[in-house]
């Protein structure tokens, strides 16, 4: 909260400047008081709207009364993905648990400070490590919820991945440090994020415990609180075989998990680009939805959903042309990122995304 106060104080200082430097500038005493009161109100409004709240691993952005996005601090923080906090009234819900327990502890503490209730529900949008490894800090107090498929996949994937990481994290961390050192000016910011990614894993591994969801569902699930209800929708064969999008129908907010990436390349490697596109088109067409919290990148409006739909279409078109020309996939995936997506982070996912759309085009 430190940054909020700093910004409020700063704006009070700026707005009261004319009175201090030119005491005669507003002559009438009543007008002077009125000006000062207005200045303080404006400063408070600006300060309270400032999303920066001083957390180490993420920053908080309020989307509606009782609804917050927790956006990853990508300057070396350990969250690695975005999360959400929802005050259900009598209970608190957290959407996604971040990559590492240290970031998740901060999320839990922040959620409880904001809502004044302990966290009762944690949703895992899908099985990828950067959305589920913080689970352990929420139990036994909260129920962890995912789709049935996600729980089973998480169990399998985490056992394999953690075994691999315990053997290889030293090398990966070293490589990330070297990449940062040799990064160009354009690559530097993203290299800092990846260093945070490997640093977080190295630090969390000694105490990391795979914590599986205790409640599972298929298709959809409503969670009702005294103030509001949220709808969990299973998106099949999107970013993975099973992802959860959380809808707040009254507020028109969708927590998308990795069904949506903003200003970052998505990851098609564990999903299906064509059905992801269809799901995104449905969300785009849903007139009641106004704000979208992606799994990676800033909070967005409909335009970003449309951009991702176009990204998928553009890659599909490239793949269709390559298949028609009998180009082999090993050549096809070597091509440069399309110019309109060159500024996006996660360019390392591009060859895998091309592979996925190529194989989908081949099946047609
Ligand atoms: Zn993911």
Can you describe this structure in just a few lines?
The protein has 11 helices and 12 strands.
Task: Give structural notes.
This protein is of the alpha/beta class and 364 residues long. Helix content is 45%, strand content 19%. The chain contains eleven helices and twelve strands. The strands form two sheets. A seven-stranded mixed sheet has the order 1-2-3-4-5-6-7. A five-stranded mixed sheet has the order 8-9-10-11-12, with helices on one face. The model is unreliable at 1-14 and 42-52 (pLDDT under 50). The structure holds zinc ion. Residues 126, 128, 239, 258, 267, 295 line the site of zinc ion.
Total number of strands: 12
> What strand order characterises the main sheet?
1-2-3-4-5-6-7
Which ligands, by name, code or SMILES, are bound? zinc ion
Overall radius of gyration:
23 Å
Q: Can you summarize the main beta sheet?
A: 7 strands, mixed
Poorly predicted ranges: 1-14, 42-52
How many structurally independent domains? 2
- CATH architectural designation of the largest domain: 4-Layer Sandwich
CATH names the topology of the largest domain as Metallo-beta-lactamase, Chain A
Question: Separation of termini?
Answer: 54 Å
What percentage of the residues does DSSP assign to strands (E)?
Answer: 15-25%
Shape: globular
N-to-C SSE string, H for helix and E for strand: HHHEEEEHEHEHHEEEEEHEHHH
The computed structural class is: alpha/beta
Helix content: 40-55%
Report mean pLDDT, rounded to a whole number. Answer: 90
Tell me the name of the CATH homologous superfamily of the largest domain. Ribonuclease Z/Hydroxyacylglutathione hydrolase-like
């Amino acid at each position: 909260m430190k940054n909020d106060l700093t910004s409020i104080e700063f704006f009070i200082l700026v707005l009261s400047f004319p009175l201090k430097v030119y005491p005669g500038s507003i002559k009438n005493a009543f007008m002077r008081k009125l000006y000062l009161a207005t200045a303080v109100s404006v400063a408070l409004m600006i300060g309270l709207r400032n999303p920066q709240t001083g957390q180490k691993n993420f920053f908080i952005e309020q989307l509606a009364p009782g609804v917050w996005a927790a956006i990853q601090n990508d300057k070396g923080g350990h969250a690695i993905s975005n999360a959400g906090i929802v005050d259900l009234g009598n209970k608190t819900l957290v959407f996604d648990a971040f990559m590492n327990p240290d970031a998740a502890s901060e999320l839990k503490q922040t959620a409880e400070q904001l809502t004044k209730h302990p966290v009762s529900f944690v949703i895992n949008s899908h099985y990828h490590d950067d959305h589920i490894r913080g689970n352990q800090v929420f139990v036994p107090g909260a129920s962890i919820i995912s789709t049935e498929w996600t729980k089973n996949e998480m169990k399998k994937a985490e056992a394999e991945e953690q075994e691999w990481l315990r053997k290889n994290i030293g090398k990966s961390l070293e490589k990330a440090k070297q990449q940062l050192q040799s990064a160009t000016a354009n690559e530097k910011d993203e290299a800092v994020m990846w260093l945070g990614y490997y640093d977080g894993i190295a630090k969390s591994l000694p105490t990391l415990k795979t914590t599986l969801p205790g409640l599972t569902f298929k298709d959809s699930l409503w969670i009702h609180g005294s103030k509001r209800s949220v709808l969990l929708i299973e998106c099949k064969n999107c970013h993975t075989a099973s992802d959860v999008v959380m809808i707040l129908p009254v507020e028109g907010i969708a927590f998308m998990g990795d069904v949506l990436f903003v200003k970052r390349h998505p990851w098609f490697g564990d999903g299906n680009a064509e059905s992801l596109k269809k799901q995104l088109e449905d969300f785009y067409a849903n007139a009641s939805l106004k704000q979208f919290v992606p799994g990676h990148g800033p909070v967005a409006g409909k335009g970003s959903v449309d951009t991702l739909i176009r990204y998928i279409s553009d890659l599909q078109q490239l793949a269709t042309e390559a298949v028609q020309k009998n180009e082999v996939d090993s050549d096809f995936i070597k091509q440069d990122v399309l110019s309109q997506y060159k500024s996006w982070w996660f360019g390392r996912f591009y060859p895998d995304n091309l592979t996925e759309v190529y194989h989908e085009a081949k099946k047609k």
